[in-house]
Specification:
By secondary structure, this protein is mostly helical. The protein has two domains: about 35 residues, no CATH class; about 60 residues, 434 Repressor (Amino-terminal Domain), CATH 1.10.260. It has eight helices and no strands. Helix 4 crosses helix 5. The longest helix is centred in the first third of the chain and has 16 residues.
Length: about 100
């Protein structure tokens, strides 16, 4: 009878290390993919502090999260820290709808 490979038995250390690394990557995945706006909000001390610093409403913040920060406010957001105007421009461009020619 053929015996199948059991990674937990045959490679106990390597398999356990793989599991720990995979769990850590899943647990911290949101930190690696944070948008420039999310980093700016975190750098300001949370949504309420960010809205007060930039002078916007909760509705505007929700719109910015969906569509990106408008180019007229890139400097204000960058002043909070956590993002540069270039990063905000790239994010806005990636969220722009495809325009038919």
């Amino acid at each position: 009878m053929q015996e199948f490979c059991n990674p937990a038995r045959d490679f106990p250390r390597r398999y356990a290390d793989f599991l720990l690394d995979a769990r850590a990557a899943r647990r911290h995945a949101w930190r690696m993919t944070a948008s420039p706006l999310a980093r700016a909000v975190a750098a300001a001390g949370g949504p309420a502090a960010f809205m007060a610093a930039v002078g916007i409403s909760p509705r505007t913040l929700a719109t910015w999260r969906k569509e990106g920060v408008p180019d007229t406010r890139w400097r204000d957001v960058a002043a909070c820290g956590g993002a540069t105007p270039d990063e905000l421009a790239l994010e806005r461009a990636s969220k722009a709808p495809e325009r038919a020619a």
